[in-house]
Amino acid sequence: MSEDIHERQRPVVLEAINAVADRIESEQDHLTELDSAIGDADHGANLTRGFSSVREELEEIEDEPIDAIVKEVGTTLISNVGGASGPLYGGTLLTASQELTDGFTAESSVAFAEAYLAKVKDRGDATVGDKTMVDTLTPAVHTYKKSIEEDELPPLTALAKAVDAAERGVEYTVPLKAMKGRASFLGWRSVGHQDPGATSTLYILEELLAVAETHLEGETAVEAVAENVSETDESADDAEATDAEQK
């Protein structure tokens, strides 16, 4: 069964990887501009180099199982992305890929997201409020998990809600004082600048959503999703209504 899942999902995974590579390349200058304000001005170039190398590797791994493909993406990013970004963007994939031995399901995608977030926080020694990619990933992953496990929404809808949460996470970094990385050396001068790592993380999530929209069914308009959930709560019985209030 898992082999069949890998066969069906492999083209979508490869499509998503290429889409992310394209987006990072197209946003290179903007990411560099953001990093120029509070970093080394190399975030855009480093990620572009890394994902360009990933694209070159795809032909050699396009027949591999999904977990092996994701693992190889991580290995390639570690080898080709300089600075702290290599381990943060690549090393985390090595760990999270272990959750995909049976391909992508609602359950495995949640486990993958949680493993990715946990490894990013561990490698970067960062928490919410430190003005890093964690400020984007944390609300995105928590929203995705809740949408799948508690609200029982389709994965596409859950991903749309996660991207919306990630967008707000990026905005959240602007007024923060950086506590990690080179930006922390600026102290209060880092306030007022959008974090480049949080931004590139949002771009990756946006491309994953764009590809998912062409292959999965579900509602992606977050406002409509909220209205539907509200209507469901109103028509639920007393037990369900009480549970919804607690959430």
Automatic annotation (TrEMBL):
Residues 230-247 have a biased composition (Acidic residues). Its EC number is 2.7.1.29. One of its GO terms (molecular function) is glycerone kinase activity. Transmembrane segments: none annotated. Keywords: Kinase, Transferase. Residues 228-247 are annotated as: Disordered. Pfam families: Dak2. This is Dihydroxyacetone kinase subunit DhaL. The lineage of its organism: Archaea, Methanobacteriati, Methanobacteriota, Stenosarchaea group, Halobacteria.
